[in-house]
Every structure is written in C-alpha cells, then in structure tokens.
Amino acid sequence: MIPMSRREMLKTAGTGAALLAMPTLSLSAADEKPKLFELPKLPYAFDALEPHIDAKTMEIHHDRHHQTYVDNLNKAVAGTEWAGKSIVEIITNLSKIPEIKRAAIRNNGGGHYNHSLFWQMMSPKGGKPT
Ligand SMILES: [Fe+2]
Fold first, then answer.
1. How far away, in angstroms, is 62 Cα from ligand 1 center?
2. Overall average pLDDT of the 67-96 stretch
3. What spacing in Å lies between the alpha carbon of 122 and ligand 1's midpoint?
C-alpha cells in the first residue's frame, strides 16, 4: 500500500466524485427539453354552461380547437429560441420572431391564449365583470 497524505487522499476522492457526477450532469443537460405548451384542464364540466352553451360545443372548442392550437404552437416554436418561453412573452414579442415563423406562432399562440382566457372568464355560476 502506498502511503498517502490527508491532502492527497482528499484530492483523489474529490476528483473521483467529480468524475462520477459528470456523466449525470452532461446526460441531464443533453436530455433537457424545453417545456411544451399544454392544454389546460377545463375548470368545469362540458355541460356546466347549459343551456347557454351546450356540452358538445364546449367539448369541440376545448378538446379539438384548443388542443390543435396547443399542438401547432408547440410545432411552430420547436427548435427556435421561443421554445420554453411563456405564451405572454411570445405574444408580446411577435415583432422579434422571424417572419417565416411569425404567422404560425401568432395564430396558434393567440388561439391558445384566447381559449385559456375564455375557460377562466366563463362560469357556470354567472357573475359580473371585475
Ligand atoms: Fe374555439
């Protein structure tokens, strides 16, 4: 056995620990993907607004229209610097988005934002503007 000073032993242990940690760190960085936009859950049942808005209309607008906006927005921002940004940050900076992506991001981002707002503004209990 080779005699080792306390300093040498700590240095060796530290290097070993750093090497063990490195693959984990680089793998997590490589696996890290920007957060995708998601369809928000409807805060009430599809039929909660009847008789004013029927359940089928709500289902179509939430599950189909809104989901399509979310999916197309995710496709439009994929691979750009806008992936992972909030919808508010994106729609308030439309002029900075390259023209080739701008229409798809504006239309689908606007559809996602507006529908998200509608689901919160409408209520089965009615109410008054705030
Ligand atoms: Fe809609």
1. 7
2. 97
3. 13
